[in-house]
Task: structure prediction
Amino acid sequence: GTLDLEAKRRVMRPLGQWNSIEFSVKDGDMVTKLNGAVITSVKRTDYNAAEWSAPSFIGFQSQGAKMSWRNIRIRVD
Result:
């Protein structure tokens, strides 16, 4: 997969402002958007897709700073 650090820096909002993050997975390919900009892309050929075929958990991680979450939605197409 690829992480576009420059795109992430460009669209990250200042401390104290809300950021919007969207994860989408379709046919084993995953895309992560931060405030509407693609920052990560993982193709199913980048990993063993069979390992990700079963239902699992979604986790959010903080790097030691206080974080708040709101308006979390999960949509199945």
